[in-house]
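Thread: quick sanity check before group meeting

JM: Hey all, I'm pulling together slides for Thursday and realized we never actually wrote out the predicted structure for the chain we discussed last week. Dropping the sequence here so it's in one place. If anyone has concerns about the input, flag it before I start.
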Amino acid sequence: MKITFLGSSHGYAEKNRFTSATLVETNEFSYLLDAGGPVEWLMVNNDKPFERIRGIFITHMHNDHVGSLSCVIEPMLRFRYNDNATCFFPCEKGRDGFIDWLEIMNVSGDKAKETVKFEITKEGKIFSNGDICVTAKSTRHLGENNFAFSYTFERNGKKVLFTGDMGQGFLEYPDLVYGEHYDMVVCEMAHAAFEDVADMLRKTDTDRMIITHYYEPNLKGFDDISLADFPFPVTLSSDGMEIQL
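JM (edit): ok, ran it. Output follows.
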């Protein structure tokens, strides 16, 4: 798997950092996790072809995670890049509202549903196509309504967890992450201060950790905390950064 951080910022874009969008690529296909910052532009300028997309996974319905989704779906319909993509929404209201939005932009909702499969994320294994397997688990980012999710991608014995946005203070982190080994954990840092959750993160069973979707003030103390105390390397993401597993 190759993971490209197209957008690594928090709720709003910053200079040289767009909002949340991450691409997971295999030898054959690609899978998009969230569609915040200008995904169409980011994919084109990073030489990521739309026709390889087989799955789109939205963690939750905040603008910085879904605001550019139409810029992915509309070209698929207009140019028929592929008829084999599935887009997962965290709730029916989000899916139905998105299709209504396409209609407002004079894009046929019926045509959209004929070209792209629109599904609702539930906890458990939600996607498997012989290339990759994706499992979802809810977070507390939007309270207890289960409309926000983490996603785990598995392929050829490699396992990568994307925490998605969590509740303030990461109270769900142990239940979300502990108990399994991951080749990489991609953890947000917009809803907790690193120094407050460092001890919790140290207990993660992973080979490496990437901090993304971070709000700069939440990294206060990041350089002062001894990362040598972590049993794995911890790295900050940046737009365009690629990692091969």
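AS: nice. The helical segments are 39-45, 63-66, 70-79, 92-104, 109-115, 173-177, 194-202. The mean pLDDT is 94.
JM: adding both to the slides.
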